[in-house]
């Protein structure tokens, strides 16, 4: 029986080496197309997110009602709020908020609207006794950005006083006697109303959530990468099949020789 031919001799034969180079070129092109589709997705996402952040301010009530939950499309939107500052007793402070290199508190005050009220992050103070944290009163019109409730629970803090560890509407609804919108507004400008003096330090609104536009391009990218992998797999499969066929061809003459009946030498032919 002839020794089995090594697989590498088949793979690196001129024919299959040429096909390997072709397969690598095709797979490389497909991989580049996949990266390009991913770049298209990132570009569309960045453009959509920036467009959302730069959109003209709208009235808060036009995005959703006090009876609705906060829609995802409203998070990060710039809005205007016109109403009257709520009772000073309903103002709260959110602890452990960084401003520069100093820890302090966010000052959150209610603004009563025609339907319900919205909690407004007016700014930052170093201590809850800071004069800048005194609750305002009277009519007000302000601009700001919509932010959602934080995940951490602060219901235990509500029973102890007006200093909370997190910014959560589910906690605040039990601390006031009126309905609240399911969102906060981080104040960026006081358009009209009494300007407090001193005023809390401005708080920068969080960046708007990423608008994942062009998710179809991500699917296209993965399709191209799968095609690239399939191309190389097909080359390997074809080489393996060719190698097996070559071994069978090499063993065929030996099998034929074994099947030939040898001429017997023990018998003699009589005349």
UniProtKB/TrEMBL annotation:
Pfam families: SURF1 (PF02104)
Localization in the cell: Cell membrane
Compositional bias of kind Basic and acidic residues: 248-258
GO cellular component term of the entry, any: plasma membrane
Alphabetized UniProt keyword annotations: Cell membrane, Membrane
Topology with respect to the bilayer: Multi-pass membrane protein
Region (Disordered): 248-271
Top-rank taxon, per record: Bacteria
InterPro entries for this protein: Surf1/Shy1 (IPR002994)
Family from the record: Belongs to the SURF1 family.
Full protein name: SURF1-like protein
